[in-house]
Amino acid sequence: MIVDIRKWKHVFKLDPDREISDEALDQLCLSGTDAILVGGSSGVTFDNTVDLLSRIRQYEVPCALEISNQEAIVPGFDLFLIPVVLNADDPKWIVGQHHEALKEYGALLNWDEIVAEGYIILNKDATAAQLTSARTDLDAKDVAAYARMADKLFNMSIVYLEYSGTFGDMELVRKTRQVLENARLVYGGGIDSLEKAQQAAEAADTIVVGNIIYSDLEQALQTVNVNFDRNGR
Ligand SMILES: CC(C)=CCC/C(C)=C/CC/C(C)=C/CC/C(C)=C/CC/C(C)=C/CC/C(C)=C/CC/C(C)=C/COP(=O)(O)OP(=O)(O)O
Ligand SMILES: O=P(O)(O)OC[C@@H](O)CO
Ligand SMILES: [Mg+2]
């Protein structure tokens, strides 16, 4: 399947380390979302990723893997998203893991299926922030510099503002999007209602809905009704 991330406005992120019923998965996959992203920052294994992929594959919705560890690289997804945590204090999460993975898979890859994500993690309490020792105390100028680094210096297709677990600063999201020329501004974190989805949609190009799927499926499904008309990209 040819998948164009530039068309993604709404995405559900499913965590292979968390239980999801067949009925819930059916509703998510048929919801009208633009894609299902499979990923999590801890407890993701080859087995739980294969299991989730095979269940999602019963549906037509595009399905991408956001790789978080080398042991859980599973073939068969439409696309592979590779986080590069620009504000990580530990280079392992900027180039180290990537170097190891490319030693193993580098010669085998179809680069058309691979998309680098310039991650900027802004919630200090998120699992991913702690794992990567991210410097989260950033002002708008710091974030803009990372965003330009991803967009212009490294030519990445995605800048991902990650607030996983909490709803972020939409003014900062809006300002960050304004400095991007080519990359898409993806926002994720704390979207737990249509109202918050709408606020995020007015600031970002793509919104990602994760944790609420597991605590209030009905609210999660409501977020698909978000209106992107006003942000014009
Ligand atoms: C042959 C074949 C199958 C080929 C395909 C393989 C392929 C595409 C290889 C590419 C090679 C490559 C460069 C791989 C990268 C390897 C790798 C392990 C990179 C490190 C990625 C990274 C920086 C991870 C850190 C954690 C992180 C940022 C995860 C992102 C996801 C995330 C933040 C999820 C939210 O997690 P959650 O659990 O929900 O968190 P909360 O508890 O806070 O909610
Ligand atoms: O789980 P939430 O807080 O919705 O965040 C979504 C996503 O950005 C997580 O990587
Ligand atoms: Mg989560």
TrEMBL record:
**Which residues participate in Mg(2+) binding?**
15, 41
Cofactor(s) in the UniProt record: Mg(2+)
GO MF annotations, alphabetized? transferase activity
Top-level taxon in the UniProt lineage: Bacteria
The reactions it catalyses are:
sn-glycerol 1-phosphate + all-trans-heptaprenyl diphosphate = 3-heptaprenyl-sn-glycero-1-phosphate + diphosphate
> Could you tell me which pathway this protein works in?
Membrane lipid metabolism; glycerophospholipid metabolism
**UniProt keyword terms in alphabetical order:** Lipid biosynthesis, Lipid metabolism, Magnesium, Metal-binding, Phospholipid biosynthesis, Phospholipid metabolism, Transferase
InterPro entries on file: GGGP/HepGP_synthase_I (IPR039074), GGGP/HepGP_synthase_sf (IPR038597), GGGP_HepGP_synthase (IPR008205)
Where sn-glycerol 1-phosphate is bound, by residue? 13, 160-165, 190, 210-211
At the top of the EC hierarchy, this enzyme's class is: transferase
Q: What is its EC number?
A: 2.5.1.n9
Short name of any one Pfam family annotated for the protein: PcrB
Similarity comment: family membership: Belongs to the GGGP/HepGP synthase family. Group I subfamily.
* Cited function: Prenyltransferase that catalyzes in vivo the transfer of the heptaprenyl moiety of heptaprenyl pyrophosphate (HepPP; 35 carbon atoms) to the C3 hydroxyl of sn-glycerol-1-phosphate (G1P), producing heptaprenylglyceryl phosphate (HepGP). This reaction is an ether-bond-formation step in the biosynthesis of archaea-type G1P-based membrane lipids found in Bacillales.
Quaternary structure and interacting proteins, as annotated: Homodimer.
Q: What is this protein called?
A: Heptaprenylglyceryl phosphate synthase
Source organism of this protein record: Paenibacillus qinlingensis
